[in-house]
Amino acid sequence: MKTWITQLRKGLLEFCILNALAKSQTYGYELIQQLKKLEELAITESTAYPILNRLRQDGYVKIRVASSASGPPRRYFSLTALGKRRIREMNAYWHDLCASIDHLRTTDPEKGKS
Amino acid sequence: MTTDPEIRQAVDEFLERVNSHLADQTPQQEREILADLEAHIHEALASRAQDRQPTLDDVQAVLAEMDPPESYGQSSQAKQASLSPKRIIGIIALCTCLGSLALAGLLGLLMGHVLATSIPYFLFLAGQIAALVLGIIARTDPFGKAAIITSCVLIALSILFTS
């Protein structure tokens, strides 16, 4: 069970990070705090920041550094146009995937009914 | 960014330890990840300290709550250990190390000797130095580290036996 959960989490990390950024730009610390609330996914700094770096390399995420009066410069992450398209596609696929799995789970194969 | 030297040192030491585990990343990728982490640490400090100046205890508490530096070497999505540039260089380094040893040994057998001034020895030494340099370039990769250790040991043994 643990292995299955680990593999499932790995596949969902990018999806969750892109969804978190889809709502609005956010800085790293705030993003991590938001993601940490998803306890089932167990996202922490050592998984999130390398993924964010890769998403930036792939052109899905951009960074804006803004000086802060109260502290260190903040690095704001947001989606690029490519990132927005990607998360739209991912969300559409996720919707279809969930519908298919729910159908599989609830359909009686003998009777063909839910 | 805080200017307290003790706090800066604690943060810098943590980031250096993270950097040592960031295998298979390009230098720019390493810089970006470390910059993100540094900003994260200072945000966490600001959140913890609120309106007062953060103390060294605050830094240590923040760092204790974060993932340990070793975990940055285990990230499944960011690390592609199989064919990264450093992995390739590390493999070449180790092959050069062992290959030059084998070649020198073979030439020595054919020539009947391996003197300190002979061609096999120079080939061996050149190979070990090349392996050492490549190993240092790929020092964050396990193959690179193995090449460094092996070439140093072989060079030391060769000097010992030829002196």
Walk me through the structure:
The complex is a heterodimer of chains A (114) and B (163). Chain A is built from 4 helices and 3 strands; from the N terminus they run H-E-H-H-E-E-H. Chain A has helices at 2-23, 28-36, 45-57, 81-106; strands at residues 26-27, 61-66, 74-79. In chain A, strands 1-3-2 form a 3-stranded antiparallel beta sheet. The longest helix of chain A is centred in the last third of the chain and has 26 residues, at 81-106. Chain A starts with a helix and ends in an 8-residue tail after the last helix. Chain B has 163 residues and is mainly α. The longest helix of chain B has 27 residues, at 85-111. At the A-B interface, helix 1, helix 2 and helix 3 of A face helix 2 of B.
In short:
The complex is a heterodimer of chains A (114) and B (163). Chain A is an alpha+beta fold. Chain A contains four helices and three strands, in the order H-E-H-H-E-E-H.
Order of helices and strands of chain B: HHHHHH
Computed over alpha carbons, the radius of gyration of chain A is 17 Å
Strand count of chain A = 3
Q: Tally the helices of chain B: what do you get? A: 6
Helix content of chain B: over 70%
Proportion of residues in extended strands of chain A:
5-15%
Alpha plus pi helix count of chain A:
4
Structural class of chain B: mainly alpha
Based on CA inertia axes, which overall geometry of chain A fits? elongated
SSE inventory with pairings:
The complex is a heterodimer of chains A (114) and B (163).
Chain A: H1 2-23, E1 26-27, H2 28-36, H3 45-57, E2 61-66, E3 74-79, H4 81-106
Antiparallel strand pairs in A: 1-3, 2-3
Chain B: H1 5-21, H2 27-49, H3 56-65, H4 85-111, H5 119-137, H6 142-162
Helix pairs in contact in B: 1-2, 1-3, 2-3, 4-5, 4-6, 5-6
